[in-house]
C-alpha cells in the first residue's frame, strides 16, 4: 500500500527501513524517503506504521 503519494513510499518500504535499517523515528524516515515533506497527509499513517512495527520488534526480542 502506498503511504506517501507525493514520494511513492509504501508501507513495505517503511517496515524495511525500521526492521532492517534500524530507523526508529520520523526524522530518520524523512531523511531516507522525504515522506511528509510535501503535502503531509501521510504523516499520521506513517507514525502508526512506525509505532506498530517498533512494538512488534520489541515483542519479538522479549
Number of strands: 2
Tally of separate domains: 1
User: What does the main sheet amount to?
Assistant: 2 strands, antiparallel
Quote the CATH topology.
Arc Repressor Mutant, subunit A
Average pLDDT number: 94
**Low-confidence region ranges:** none
Residues in helices, as a percent range: 55-70%
Based on CA inertia axes, which overall geometry fits?
elongated
Q: What structural category arises from helix and sheet content?
A: mainly alpha
- Supply the CATH architecture: Orthogonal Bundle
- Termini separation (Å)? 29 Å
- Kindly provide the radius of gyration, computed on alpha-carbon positions and rounded to a whole number of angstroms: 11 Å
Beta-strand percentage range: 5-15%
**Count of DSSP H/I helices:** 3
What kind of assembly state do the chains in view correspond to? single chain
Strands across the major sheet, in which order? 1-2
Output the helix-strand order. Answer: EEHHH
CATH class category: Mainly Alpha
In CATH terms, the superfamily is BFD-like [2Fe-2S]-binding domain
Amino acid at each position: 500500500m502506498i503511504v506517501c503519494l507525493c514520494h511513492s513510499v509504501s508501507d513495505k518500504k517503511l517496515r524495511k527501513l525500521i526492521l532492517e535499517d534500524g530507523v526508529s523515528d520520523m526524522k530518520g524516515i524523512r531523511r531516507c524517503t522525504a515522506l511528509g515533506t510535501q503535502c503531509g497527509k501521510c504523516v499520521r499513517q506513517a507514525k502508526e506504521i512506525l509505532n506498530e512495527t517498533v512494538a512488534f520488534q520489541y515483542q519479538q526480542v522479549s
